[in-house]
Design a protein that fits this description.
75 residues, alpha+beta, three-stranded mixed sheet, 1 helix
């Protein structure tokens, strides 16, 4: 399975969550990139779009990372 991943980074949890900040235009752009990448490969199998949210917050030495599988559909 081939996956295309869009990532969003935040320095805190205030306001809109990182994964919710992926707007319609960005989803369309990911879809367009995926189709352009797959075209010369003649890819006939399924592929997915995921979202990764990354939070760098004050008290954590390592970022907090969360993966949202099949976060959105592209056509």
């Amino acid at each position: 399975m081939l996956c295309f991943i869009a990532g969003k980074t935040r320095t805190g949890h205030e306001g809109k969550p990182a994964e919710a900040a992926l707007d319609r235009d960005t989803r369309r752009e990911v879809g367009a990139v995926a189709r352009e990448y797959l075209r010369p490969l003649r890819w006939t199998r399924q592929w997915r779009s995921h979202v990764v949210s990354v939070y760098y917050e004050g008290g954590f030495p390592q970022p907090q990372i969360e993966l949202f599988k099949n976060a959105f559909r592209v056509s």
